[in-house]
Amino acid sequence: MRRWPDVEADNLQAWDASDRLILDEASALPFGADDVVVIGDRHGALTLGALASGASRVRVHQDGILGERALVANAERRGLGAGGSGMPFAHLPLDASLVEGARVVLLQLPRSLDALDEIARLVAAHAAPDVRIVAGGRVKHMTRAMNDVLAQSFQSVTASLARQKSRVLHATQPLPSQATPWPRTQRHDDAGLTLVAHGGVFAGTSIDIGTRLLLDAIPSMRSAERAIDLACGNGIVASALALARPDLRVLATDQSAAAVASARATAEANGVADRVEVVRADGLETVPDDSAELVLLNPPFHVGASVHTGLADRLFADAGRALAPGGQLWTVWNSHLHYRPALQRAVGPTQQAHRTSKFTLTVSHKP
């Protein structure tokens, strides 16, 4: 299996021991029927494993669009979907259609407890009464709090023995349906913004310190008819730009389904949905070369659970390609990452606009 078209590196794998343990722990469950759901599959290991174990068709939700594309690519390398027969799996949003009537849910545990809570509540409310969640992860990333979150939606939560530094949680007997708190909404009067966020979005409905630096710099940014919020997350930067500049149109883009849904809801909540277009995409793949005037970016510095600059480097290169001559890229980043040389190579001359003990804000100019 490969991660492609996701970031590939020697220390990044397309699967790990937790995928294998999840499949082994679920091996005695009814894979033969069309009632298997996979959530959080990173690059296709769980989906392809379920199909190999006898599932006739699998409903899948992967938050990242690159994960979706990697699953398709890995399936094609195994000859699935040949002859125009179509893939034996379907990508669905994280809503009732994904889990309706499901009896087996294979889950790669998210690191966010909020993301896990949203998933657990959805499964408990819409899956079959005898549904079983088989949720696994690396032991170093698991906490007792995950059991507690699952126990809010399921009567029985048990843990497997650890194997190869991985463990599985089994959740059964869904509790009576409760009103879901997702997505959550929070008003920030100090910023003049309302944030809406699903469980899987970085920072949720809070405003992280780095993003505040970007917001404070908006008055200093060049004039433009269109701006881009790259890796938009909950959409706060896109909505703030639209509110600060009534004549500006903003493109907000992110590869995360949870981020895109949150950014759209945030734009609606702030009354700027008519001027904020939100797109799920791999970086700026929908933006033509040499066309963008202003791009804002708070890049992730994790690839999955690994600290890795590969994703940020891809975003810098994408911004450099898409910016028109004279365009600006405003980037906020953790100061210890020393991104300035990479920004200068990918975009052009880069100056420090502001710096704190933890974060650096730079502006890069396309020559």
Short note summarizing the structure:
The chain has helices at about 15-25, 45-50, 65-75, 95-100, 115-125, 145-150, 210-215, 235-245, 255-270, 310-320, 340-345, and strands at about 35-40, 60, 90, 105-110, 130-140, 155-160, 165-175, 185-190, 195, 225-230, 250-255, 275-280, 290-295, 300-305, 305, 325-335, 350-355, 360-365.
What does this structure look like?
- This protein has about 375 residues and is an alpha/beta fold.
- It has two domains: about 160 residues, 3-Layer(aba) Sandwich (Rossmann fold), CATH 3.40.50.150; about 180 residues, 3-Layer(aba) Sandwich (Rossmann fold).
- The chain is built from eleven helices and 18 strands.
- The strands form four sheets. The chain has a seven-stranded mixed beta sheet, with helices on both faces. A seven-stranded mixed beta sheet has the order 12-11-10-13-16-18-17, sandwiched between helices. A two-stranded antiparallel ribbon has the order 8-9.
- Helix 1 runs parallel beside helix 2 and helix 5 runs parallel beside helix 6.
- The longest helix has 14 residues.
- The chain starts with 16 loop residues before the first helix and ends with a strand.
- About 0% of the residues have low confidence.
